[in-house]
Amino acid sequence: MTTFPGFADPVLDGQAAFRAVLQAMSRPGLVQRLPVPPEAPPGLSPAAAALLLTLVDATTPLCLDAGAEAEAWVRFHCGAPLAEVGAADFVLNAPLRALSPGNEEEPERGATLILEVSALEEGAGWRLTGPGIEHLHRLRVAGAPEGFLADWAANRLRAPCGVDVILCAGDVIAALPRSVAIEEG
Amino acid sequence: MSGYNFAYLDESTKRMIRRAILKAVAIPGHQVPFGSREMPLPYGWGTGGIQVTAAILGPADVLKVIDQGSDDTTNAVSIRAFFRRTAGIATTESTAEASIIQTRHRIPERALREDQILVYQVPIPEPLGRLEPRIAETRRMHAMADYGLMHVKLYEDIARHGHIATSYSYPVMVNGRYLMSPSPIPAFDNPKMDRMPALQLFGAGREKRIYAVPPYTSVKSLDFDDHPFRPIRAPHACELCGSRDTYLDEVLTDDVGGRIFVCSDTDFCAERQAMKEAAE
């Protein structure tokens, strides 16, 4: 059991959060603010909690290592079965290499990594190019795991297979679909 | 809107469609399977587009629906009424005012903006389907980016007719990787898809596929160096607004061979007529 709440309005908050994710995914590197639940359970940032409520349910195996309170919250609000990192559709905070990239005929089976970082800021830092970006987007990511950019370059080599990443910090997100190229700023 | 969940679909269906849309955006041009639901209108009436629209729609959205460019055909009118009733949202006939535009077989003439989403109703999502009926084979061909068959088809057009005789549903390459059916829009509209600032989502209800083109993504119509792609347009001016650069419909006016050409995009045509009148 958990005493921590989900969205105040599950239908409309879920819709608004999805549109923010869709905007982030179709314009990589743009920072979007999410509607968040009134109180996130210990172990989850507000944005990560909102993402799970928006995208995860009983049909999507989930891998998270965020403590018993977060697990109970996910079971109660999302009903997602917990899985090993390689078998999960959604994974919270794991090395990029460990996730399933899908296969050539079904690249959509590539998993989504929800990665909590300490801060996201537009206009400086990494240089992003690719579909969804007119010329260049810049995104400063504070607290990305060590070796993330090398892992990302390897992820891009598997195209069209690969892993898509949603970065979160506090109540904001930015997305890195597998199609985006990142250069260090 | 009592008696319905917001925008008709239940929340777990919306989540399933939303996940498919996100993967479709991450893999531009790739067809993502989804669990298409039975809708209160038959397959072929835009069930794919309606399900995509229902999954993205919010209370602040303003919805425009067009059918072959027209706002006032049965299909467009009933889909607008459907979302007014089930979501209580505002609808419009103006391209400029809309935040979501659901379309059957046209792209509006007015250039779309970054804050708009274009949702296509797609009858047949598989561009290779007429050349290779086995889905297992076409999936393999997409996996290998093996699109020689389509080039052969276009070449046979040239050998037989002297030019590429495909005037609608003209195949495109998305982001240099996936061959995609632009839904049966006229080839005239194909260039508008290339690097469009708006997000483009495609829903095929009967065939249970969703695909997408993110903003500013390359969309190239297939062609040959010596037979470049040419958008086709009837060589006339619109009878109503005089336009010479829009896509035209041929309309029969009597039973003795009388015919006129008018803009297919009714909103754009009405705007031009109003501008002309204001100028006079």
Automatic annotation (TrEMBL), chain A:
Keywords: Lyase
Domain of life: Bacteria
Record-linked InterPro entries: Phosphonate_metab_PhnH (IPR008772)
GO molecular function: lyase activity
Protein name: Phosphonate C-P lyase system protein PhnH
Protein species of origin: Falsiroseomonas oleicola
Gene that this polypeptide is encoded by: phnH
From TrEMBL, chain B:
Function: Catalyzes the breakage of the C-P bond in alpha-D-ribose 1-methylphosphonate 5-phosphate (PRPn) forming alpha-D-ribose.
Keywords: 4Fe-4S, Iron, Iron-sulfur, Lyase, Metal-binding, S-adenosyl-L-methionine
Enzyme class: lyase
Protein name, per record: Alpha-D-ribose 1-methylphosphonate 5-phosphate C-P lyase
Organism annotation: Falsiroseomonas oleicola
Family assignment from sequence similarity: Belongs to the PhnJ family.
InterPro entries named among the record's database cross-references: PhnJ
EC number(s) recorded for this UniProt protein: 4.7.1.1
Cited Pfam families: PhnJ (PF06007)
Catalytic reactions of this protein: alpha-D-ribose 1-methylphosphonate 5-phosphate + AH2 + S-adenosyl-L-methionine = alpha-D-ribose 1,2-cyclic phosphate 5-phosphate + methane + 5'-deoxyadenosine + L-methionine + A + H(+)
Cleavable signal peptide: none
